[in-house]
Amino acid sequence: MPRLDGSATAPLTPLSATARRIVTLFVVHAILITGAVFILLPFVWMLVTSIKSPAEIFAVDFSLWPKHFSAVQNYGFALGKFPLLRFALNGAVVCAGILVVQVLVAVPCAYALAKLRFPGRGTLLALVLLGLCIPIQVPALPLYMGLARLGLLNTYFAIMMPFFLSVFAIFLFRQFFKSYPDEIIQAARLDGMSEFEIVWRIVVPSAWPAIAAFSVFSLVAHWNDLYWPLIVISDTKLATPPLGMMFFADAETGSNYGALTAAATVLTAPLVIAFLIARRRFIEGITMTGIK
Amino acid sequence: MTSAVASPIDVPLAPVRRNRQRMIERLAGCGFAFPAFLLLLLTNLVPLAVLLYLSFTDYELGALKTNFLGLANFQKAFVDPVFRRSLYNTFVYVAIVLPGAVGLGLLIAVLLHRRKRTRSFYEIVYFLPVTSTLIAMATVWQYILHPRLGPVNGVLRALGFDAIPFLSEPAYVLPTLAAIGIWQLVGFNMVLFLAGLSAIPRELYEAAEIDGCRSGIDRFLTITWPLLGPTTMFVIVTTSITAFKVFDTVAVMTRGGPMGSSEVLLYDIYLEGYQYFHMGYAAALTLVFLAFVLLFSILQTFVLERRVHY
Amino acid sequence: MASVTLESVSKSFGNVRVLSDIDFHVADGEFLTLVGASGCGKSTLIRIIAGLEPQSAGSVRIDGRPVDHLRAHERHVAMVFQSYALYPHMRVFGNIALPLVMTRLNLFERLPLLGLLSPRRRRVMAGIASEVDAVARQLQIDALLDRRPSQLSGGQRQRVALGRAMVRQPAVFLMDEPLSNLDAKLRVHMRTELAELHARLGTTFIYVTHDQVEAMTMSDRVAMMDGGSILQLGAPSELYARPASVRVAQFIGTPAINLFPARTGPSGAVELFGAELPIRIARAPGHALTIGIRPQAIMAAPAGTSRPGCQVLHGRLRRSENLGAEHILHVDLAPPASGSLVCTTAGDPGTLGADSRGVALLFAPASCHVFDEQGERIDDAKKMEAAGAGEPLMRTS
């Protein structure tokens, strides 16, 4: 049996062990901070520029902190020239509308797929899984044509409609419902509850974490969606935040960076603030997409 | 359990039978699934069918006459230099974003995993871009990378280098857009990897330590990387699909320029379908796009799935 | 093979003191068990010995050399975890071979694809393969080398974990409750196997468990722990026959020992339930004591039975548990005694205690364990035994 003196390296002294730890810690944080700088750069620059005066923005030698504060002008200009708050409102309306319908449609369907036996169940499940692979950009073209023919372009409905069905929600909720104990449902049936009541009164409250996490996921995705609103909306009064930003940037090409960054701040702020408040839910929502 | 159950709803008083319960289940099932099914039909299946049909025609929005072209649209796409370029650009973009976003996400997650006090802070910071509105941030990036006004070039000039025209030089455009794409995705991947890392039991690392895993690299190669398999696979699939769907930054920052060097697949489809209104051709291109997306999902899921679960 | 010495080892997590001043020495080749209830600190202690956890104070020496600043893999110890900690992505062969691969191949040779380019690697791997085969055959898992851990049963996984430990030929084997995850029958079987393994290898074993049966049957010496300290360290027979404290007496032995409050009488003898026992101890009168009597030392007999040299208590039979070879009787004591006790009887007690007269419970004063008011054992030298009381108690059968 080998003895301890068979080891090739001398045992670590306490000093070298600590030194090792310090060096490792230093390197780790150096990397993390470098990355953090890269990540935060646009945010910081955005905020700082939005309160700078045009003279400073266009000055050749740049400095981080503004010497003259033009916050009021920049934000005033941005808010005045373009209905930024209107864009945010549109975003809120659209996202809320989409989310409500998504949940209303997905919950019963997921429950049915998880717990009930009915004809066509297998096919429906297969179609749901297929739908997971089809991004919105694919059916966009025919949907656009259909909406155009019906004269429904430039309406809230047009923006929300393709998203009313979220196959992802169905899939996610189904996973959740599948693990819900059958005995409770059977007891509820014995008590005389209808299937409808069972779904909404008993099963849904227990799935609340999944619904909350999905809500976060849906809100973020649709607040930031550009492709579809770009296709169906040309009226600035109905623009969602990304579209609004695009209109704004178009109108202000190359000139008023102060106002541009002010607008960007206003439009990005709601989600970022919501994230800072409800961080757990956000991260849960994202992680849930990973649990297939 | 289902045999002697009293029927809850408006069933006439008849001898209770198992069939009643079954009947109710089926009705409820169909009823619950119906709205979803209807929407599925309307928003996915019918459009797919329409796309298929359109791709065989030369329909243009508002046209009076439509001709059946067979596979001509697809043949045209195959030789169309614009389409081929957009496909190429998209692949280059994905080729840069995929290792960047996955690798960086993994690196940050591994570094963050052991931290206790600073972890929350870094998590928040790295995740911010995921929640931010990409269009707004893209506009800011445009300004940051501006040859004359932007801080990046300002720093380069201060160091004695020439300013780099990030967005106006064809050779630099795609890597720049890719960098912004990585910027947006790192936080997302980091969160997924962190979840995967916390699923690895600590005892495995301890057993490995006793068995002779000396350094971080040893630990990573022996335990972390193999056991992250499923997570890595998922991250690769989602990142590549997300990267493949690049559109926002192109639409806002470069519009496909300069000289088409940043025109990507979705942007090409957008132009064809909604600016030039070549519906038939756009439909064909959309189907090609779909084929690639499906390919990414299926290929990676099935090829890696087998090697990755224990 | 190596000895292990702990000197004044303490450990705190923040403000919580988990281990206090642990001192002991494990001789080369000895099988020592650390036993105690959950939370007593035994797992923390073994992790400190392994090098997975640094101690807050004190030192650990393996084979006479301090290892406090050595990392786990430099201490030449092997550890079997409660959950086995097998690498799920490697086959059994890979799991057992890993320690050897880690030590004998350098980083480059270990790389997944590039490593195959090294010529030395093939030779080293061949050597490793033969060693793994030898260990696998010893543990009778050589047929399983190609399987993944998820395809193995609990007992098989345990053997793989053992194999992984054995193949390193360590100086010390550390085992953290390795049998807890097995079902009862398998546990009994593995107990024997582990004991035989120890005999065969002759390596020092340090074993952690909460099961006192394992501790008693497998060890050369047992260290009983509670609240971060060692209550008693000694051979199993010593812990059973001469427990150093009430807590040790309660933990070792099934069914648990019967404990009664008592005190020193006016003449210096021990007074139990008003009656004087022929045991004299050097304590002032009125001193509070606890008397412990093992169930096996109490004989149940029909009411009214008496025997020279034995003390008698009376009670009513509340319940009888039939274990086949013996019965466990739960008896409620009658005045002047109070409380209840448990005693065992070989074979069927028959109609004992079925009538209203109750049962008589006889025990020899020599079988009484006397503990002072702190629960510490009062040294036998202080006990004075009446004549004839030293005979073993005979049972009716």
Your description of this structure?
The complex is a heterotrimer of chains A (292), B (310) and C (397). Chain A is mostly helical and 292 residues long. Helices cover 72% and strands 0% of the residues of chain A. Chain A has 15 helices and no strands. The longest helix of chain A is centred in the N-terminal third of the chain and has 37 residues, at 14-50. Chain B has 2 domains: 1-48, no CATH class; 72-308, Orthogonal Bundle (MetI-like fold), CATH 1.10.3720. In chain B, helix 1 (18-55) crosses helix 13 (279-308) and helix 3 packs across helix 12. Chain C folds into 2 domains: 4-246, P-loop containing nucleotide triphosphate hydrolases (Rossmann fold, 3-Layer(aba) Sandwich), CATH 3.40.50; 258-382, Nucleic acid-binding proteins (OB fold (Dihydrolipoamide Acetyltransferase, E2P)), CATH 2.40.50. Chain C has helices at 42-50, 92-104, 107-110, 119-138, 154-166, 184-201, 212-218, 236-241, 246-251; strands at residues 4-13, 16-26, 31-35, 57-62, 65-66, 77-80, 172-176, 204-209, 221-226, 229-234, 258-264, 269-272, 275-280, 288-293, 298-302, 311-322, 326-333, 340-346, 359-363, 368-371. In chain C, the strands form 4 sheets. A 6-stranded mixed β-sheet of chain C has the order 6-7-8-3-9-10, with helices on both faces. In chain C, strands 13-12-11-14-20 form a 5-stranded antiparallel β-sheet. Chain C has a 5-stranded antiparallel β-sheet with strand order 15-19-16-17-18, with no helix packed on it. The B-C interface holds B 201, 203-204, 206-214, 217-218, 221-223, 226-227, 229, 310 and C 50-52, 71-73, 77-79, 81, 83, 85, 87-90, 98-99, 102-103, 107, 110-112, 148-150, 164, 168.
Which helices and strands appear, and what pairs or packs with what?
The complex is a heterotrimer of chains A (292), B (310) and C (397).
Chain A (H helix, E strand, L loop, with lengths): L13 H37 L3 H5 L12 H11 L2 H32 L5 H12 L7 H10 L6 H5 L6 H12 L3 H9 L4 H12 L1 H16 L3 H6 L8 H11 L5 H21 L1 H12 L2
Chain B lengths: L17 H38 L16 H8 L1 H33 L5 H13 L2 H11 L6 H8 L11 H29 L3 H10 L4 H12 L1 H16 L3 H7 L10 H11 L3 H30 L2
Helix pairs in contact in B: 1-13, 3-7, 3-10, 3-12, 4-7, 5-11, 7-10, 10-13, 12-13
Chain C lengths: L3 E10 L2 E11 L4 E5 L6 H9 L6 E6 L2 E2 L10 E4 L11 H13 L2 H4 L8 H20 L15 H13 L5 E5 L7 H18 L2 E6 L2 H7 L2 E6 L2 E6 L1 H6 L4 H6 L6 E7 L4 E4 L2 E6 L7 E6 L4 E5 L8 E12 L3 E8 L6 E7 L12 E5 L4 E4 L26
Parallel strand pairs in C: 3-8, 3-9, 6-7, 7-8
Antiparallel strand pairs in C: 1-2, 1-4, 4-5, 9-10, 11-12, 11-14, 12-13, 14-20, 15-19, 16-17, 16-19, 17-18
Helix pairs in contact in C: 2-4, 2-5
